[in-house]
Design brief:
It contains seven helices and four strands, in the order βααβααβααβα. The chain is an alpha+beta fold. The chain has one domain: Nucleoside diphosphate kinase-like domain (Alpha-Beta Plaits, 2-Layer Sandwich), CATH 3.30.70. The chain has a four-stranded antiparallel sheet. The termini are close together.
Length: 138
């Protein structure tokens, strides 16, 4: 069964949207396998978003993800990654379709409510990064 990582970002936590966001995944039929509240350090954020390090928006990404508590979730289900990506919508809130998480709740980047893994390889790496207690079999 495919798994993916979702991070509900600080702005969504601050706006009390965690339950609404998680319920959208559950209503789709995905299973929440692991869930925890935490904080992303600047050091981990720089690794997590390292593929964007040369882009002008990189400092804003780091600032946004480290601005407060986040909720980490490991979701599971058939075609989980694609379903989650469809539910969250386009990265740019101005291009996100109404009915998606970003289309309904986000106003501007980089505060676009959620992060989600974009491939099985990324999901595996990110789950290990944010759920090290699960070990290799995460």
């Amino acid at each position: 069964m495919e798994k993916t990582l979702v991070i509900i970002k600080p702005e969504a936590v601050k706006r009390a949207l965690v339950g609404e966001i998680l319920s959208r995944f559950e209503k789709k039929g995905l299973t929440i396998k692991h869930l925890k509240v935490g904080q992303v350090s600047a050091e981990v954020a720089r690794v997590h978003y390292g593929h964007h390090a040369d882009k002008p928006f990189f400092p804003g990404l780091i600032e946004a993800i480290t601005a407060g508590p986040v909720v980490f979730a490991v979701l599971e289900g058939p075609h989980c990654i694609q379903h989650v990506r469809n539910i969250i919508g386009a990265t740019d809130p101005l291009k996100a379709t109404p009915g998606t998480i970003r289309g309904d709740f986000a106003l501007v980047n980089p505060t676009n409510m959620v992060h989600a893994s974009d491939s099985p390889e990324t999901a595996e790496m990110e789950i290990r990064r944010f759920f090290p207690e699960l070990g290799q079999g995460a």
